[in-house]
Amino acid sequence: xxxxxxxxxxxxxxxxxxxxxxxxxxxxxxxxxxxxxxxxxxxxxxxxxxxxxxxxxxxxxxxxxxxxxxxxxxxxxxxxxxxxxxxxxxxxxxxxxxxxxxxxxxxxxxxxxxxxxxxxxxxxxxxxxxxxxxxxxxxxxxxxxxxxxxxxxxxxxxxxxxxxxxxxxxxxxxxxxxxxxxxxxxxxxxxxxxxxxxxxxxxxxxxxxxxxxxxxxxxxxxxxxxxxxxxxxxxxxxxxxxxxxxxxxxxxxxxxxxxxxxxxxxxxxxxxxxxxxxxxxxxxxxxxxxxxxxxxxxxxxxxxxxxxxxxxxxxxxxxxxxxxxxxxxxxxxxxxxxxxxxxxxx
Length: 346
Description:
Blueprint: E1 5-13, E2 16-23, E3 32-41, H1 45-51, E4 63-65, E5 69-76, E6 89-91, E7 102-104, E8 111-114, E9 127-128, H2 135-151, E10 161-165, H3 169-181, E11 186-191, H4 194-200, E12 206-209, H5 214-221, E13 229-232, H6 237-240, E14 260-263, H7 276-282, E15 285-288, H8 296-306, E16 316-320, H9 324-334, E17 340-344
Parallel strand pairs: 4-7, 10-11, 10-13, 11-12, 13-14, 14-15, 16-17
Antiparallel strand pairs: 1-2, 3-5, 3-8, 3-17, 5-6, 6-9
């Protein structure tokens, strides 16, 4: 297969997207060539890129965005180290280098060349999609891999209260992963949007409005103890500074584990913490993570295959890929009302 160019979604400059041809890198002997069937627009990373909020060290224009794409393997080079076969349906995901444009994670191209140059990260490899998992579900499952990496930082302790702030794709993924990893945990969701609270009710044990009464509501729901663990998934930098208000006291003795806050949001602006004494006296553990870990894609696809992970309640809209500019514009206008925009490459 001699391929040098491909159709792609190209953000030419902030809020201006084209569907046009770009140059590919060389197909090397260790390359796997994949053809995209469905891809998606990320509400966090891709919309930040669309708005021009990415740092110049991360990407520049023109660029190909995206990392949630699935498709079919078209070619496998003789030196490619893989058990995959031509014709396999796969999670394709990142391509980090093209011939004449920036790869802003690069998943929104018809043909993706994956080799040691274009997919060098330890989680960039393609993963076979189980027969019972649709392309749509495989696309929607990708961000759950990011959630899984984050919640895997926790050491679980049976019957505990875990607070998830934000009920977008990352938050919903975190709720489901937490339920699977610790079935005895009580999952509480804090969300400002009434629309998203309704969606979250399918995945959390309790859903609370993120308003002025939220701290009191969490206190009442936990019998005064507050949350043992907290996952911040809203992407709102103004939320982070006051997270200490929602978690328990603890960590003063070895037998009394501290609260654990994990930052999972993709924050477009700086984070400012409340007065340090509020955080210092809380004595909690704070962690953060980005992207996913090796093995997460296989795990989430396995959950989808076994019916343990559910995407049926997620509001999704699909656009033909040729209408990518309209798709980004629709996502910008819809805000919370669309969880995911899928691009159809048929």
